[in-house]
Design brief:
Radius of gyration: 18 Å
Shape: elongated
Number of helices: 4
Distance between the termini: 26 Å
Number of strands: 8
Order of helices and strands: HHEHEEEEHEEE
Strand content: 35-45%
Largest sheet: 6 strands, mixed
């Protein structure tokens, strides 16, 4: 894999075909997840139809002849819709908040398992709640060692 398009295809497949994500979403939401490569802001995903959702929101690349590896920063976001609030004494917990975090971690794990190269998640993972919509995201650095092989002279 050497191009951004190839990387996106592998990420898309890893997220869409992951059995752990599918099972978790079915168990918690009664349906499979949706995977999007970017979002149309004029026609955004519909909470009742498209969630839970995993979205590739950005990809940036560092390139150059003197760079020893191919490197990208992948940005992903996940979203869940859940109106459930649990109350335990004086504590109110919005269930969707934790579910968004769990789905983000499952998505990250699927990307790790895809064997894309040296993959790690930065501490920039975070979440936000817009009750009953909860979102969480990550920036995931990916590095692949460049081949130093040159073509044979003709």
């Amino acid at each position: 894999m050497t191009t951004s398009i190839e990387l996106i295809e592998r990420i898309k497949t890893a997220l869409a075909d992951d059995n752990l994500i599918s099972a978790w979403c079915t168990q918690n939401f009664g349906r499979a997840h949706t995977v999007c490569i970017d979002i149309d802001e004029n026609n955004p995903p519909v909470p009742g139809d498209d969630y839970p959702i995993i979205v590739v929101t950005g990809l940036s690349q560092v390139r150059g002849d003197s760079v020893r590896d191919l490197s990208w920063e992948l940005e992903i976001g996940v979203g869940v819709v859940n109106k459930e609030i649990s109350v335990d004494g004086n504590v109110r917990t919005m269930t969707g908040f934790g579910q968004a975090e769990a789905l983000r971690e499952l998505a990250e794990n699927a990307i790790y398992r895809a064997g894309l190269g040296d993959v790690s998640t930065r501490a920039e993972s975070g979440s936000a709640g817009y009750y009953p919509l909860f979102i969480s995201g990550s920036v995931i650095p990916i590095k692949i060692l460049k081949s130093n092989r040159r073509a044979m002279p003709v």
